[in-house]
Amino acid sequence: MTVPYTSTLPPKFSSASWFKRVVLQWRGSVYKLMFRELLVIIFLWYIAATINEYQDEDMQKRLGDWIQFLRTYQGSTRTCLSFMLVYYYQQIYSRARGIFFAIPWPDNPFFMTACFIGTKENDGLARRKQVFRYLLATTFLVYHGISDKFKAAYPDPFDSLKKLGILNDFETEELERRFEEFPYLNELNFVPLAWCQKIITESFSLRTEQDWRADRSLLARVVESIRDFRQACANVLFEVYLPFPVFLSQLVTILTYMQILITLFAQQNSHEPDEPTFFFPIFTVVEALAFIGALRVGQIYTNPLGADDDDYEMVSFFNRNVRLASLYGCFGNDDSFDIASSVPPLADLSAIQDIIISRVPITIYDYEHHKSSLLSGGDDGNGNPTATNRPPSPAPINTPDLRKKIMKKRKIEKKTSFKEPLLNPCE
């Protein structure tokens, strides 16, 4: 699911690059997941073939009848299993997709905090950094509670929070006291969010009465972003807590391996005179790749937050959140990225924009103008685009002809229109 192979593909499709970057990919590949089972299936096929080959003629005939009998019913069982695997995969993927889109991201509260918190106080930057730390602590607690990879990367969560510079000793002690009463770390994410709420409210309350009246709606929006983030943390926990039905996983797994077992015997050599003899189970391998491969994909999706190659990279997601906090200027000592103190001055770029807009093609899907970028056009030395780089003008409208057509159409409509007869008052 998260094996990054698409970024290595060339801009234009190529069969050679597709085989190199996709088909021959080892990490998270079907070969890595199935090669042991394929070796076992091939080994069992050769054992059955050896037993079949060294029987007397009468026994080989009886075995051939059994092989033909299994082949008769193999088609129906194959169809039934195909439908089951499709349904199984759809349900598994729907759950894994729901978990991914339920993962909480602190982007919105980051943005609202950087823009509206502490912009008029002397300690505004310190307040913003405090809120950012608590938001990162919330994501850390949630990720640690749902991801096996994250737990392996940070085995001691409280010590890791202090080493990462997200919480201090007093704050971690507050979490540890609650953890002793309720030992579920991911359920403690409300604590740093409550601290965020207090800091945000105090930041607005420190403003003057006039500013407070003007910024009351901003406070509601910032609080709403924190509330939405809290709801996202709860949603991902609910998605993870709801397991996939075990009986469906058992049913599909049993049916798949029963089908492979039937295939091992049904695709043996039947010693019929008009049937070729196979020395390698090519069709058995193809069928095993199809059915066991589909089953394995579903099994991998069952726990998308595990430690497999294809599982969600929650550690990378958290690293991304920390880096984003740094770019907001609210994590670390580098304050040059602080949004509140680095707003650019007003600037007018209309002259450059006038040149660019003249190069934009009028027709949206004009192939000739989409072959090159807008910056590749030339100019006449004065900053104006040349005639060859200007977009084609629309064809002029012949106004007199158009007016004649409209008047003619109105006359026809007037003649053919229905007229209601007038009533005679003398009748």
UniProtKB/TrEMBL annotation:
TM spans (from-to): 33-52, 240-266, 278-295
Entry's Gene Ontology cellular component terms: membrane
Keywords: Membrane, Transmembrane, Transmembrane helix
Keyword Disulfide bond: no
InterPro entries for the chain: Bestrophin, Bestrophin-like
Chief place of localization: membrane
GO molecular function: chloride channel activity
Positions of the UniProt region annotated as Disordered: 375-404
UniProt-recorded name of the protein: Bestrophin homolog
